[in-house]
């Protein structure tokens, strides 16, 4: 069966349970996109939804080959959107080669999406140290044990390495590995997308213009 046929066979008539058709108008938006993001994000984060901070991070290497994966947002502020990773991982290497990236937040329960694009920089060591200290001890040991995205013989190898490290740092704090830390995406554009009936979605894009933000409505 053709893909289109499969999709049609899977479709169901409306039951009234689909995400609500909530209008979004320019007058509803805060002039500051970070404050607008917080207005959408904070109620969701407080709702108890699992992995409310999950976002898709899209990167490309120096030759333009794209990659995407899900990571967790750890900070959203006027300085940008921060996340943490192994600096030897493919995503980190791509960000160091080509420091342009995009983030996508998709919240199906409210039929909303936010897309953020901009330049990425490493966070300072002090910020990475502070966040690493806040992590559970198991996650700290895991950061040391895992050569992220490298082939591994078995899970037992990984678990044995964690046990060895647990013994090595018994009775003392686990230090942050030099190969682990944060990145911050400094936004150049942010798009707020609200789903509407008949695919006539409401979309607004914030773009930097010097020291101010310009807001434009986009066709769905």
Topology:
Layout: H1 3-10, H2 33-46, E1 54-60, E2 66-72, E3 75-77, E4 80-86, H3 90-97, E5 100-107, E6 112-122, H4 125-134, H5 137-145, H6 155-168, E7 180-194, E8 202-209, E9 212-218
Antiparallel strand pairs: 1-2, 1-5, 3-4, 4-7, 5-6, 6-7, 7-8, 8-9
Kindly summarize this structure in a few lines.
The chain has 220 residues and is of the alpha+beta class. It has helices at 3-10, 33-46, 90-97, 125-134, 137-145, 155-168; strands at residues 54-60, 66-72, 75-77, 80-86, 100-107, 112-122, 180-194, 202-209, 212-218.
Give the key terms.
220 residues; alpha+beta; nine-stranded antiparallel beta sheet
Give your account of this protein's structure.
With 220 residues, the chain is an alpha+beta fold. The protein is 29% helix and 33% strand. Strands 1, 2, 3, 4, 5, 6, 7, 8 and 9 form a 9-stranded antiparallel sheet that branches. A hairpin with a 4-residue loop joins strand 5 (100-107) and strand 6. Helix 5 packs across helix 6 (155-168). It is elongated and about 60 Å long. The model is unreliable at 1-18 (pLDDT under 50).
Major pleated sheet: 9 strands, antiparallel
* Total number of beta strands: 9
Extract low-pLDDT stretches. 1-18
C-alpha-based Rg, rounded: 21 Å
Number of helices: 6
Judged by helices, strands and strand pairing, the structural class is alpha+beta
| N-end to C-end Cα span | 30 Å
> Shape from CA axes?
elongated
Percentage of residues in DSSP E strands: 25-35%
Question: Average pLDDT value?
Answer: 90
Helical percentage = 25-40%
The SSE order reads HHEEEEHEEHHHEEE
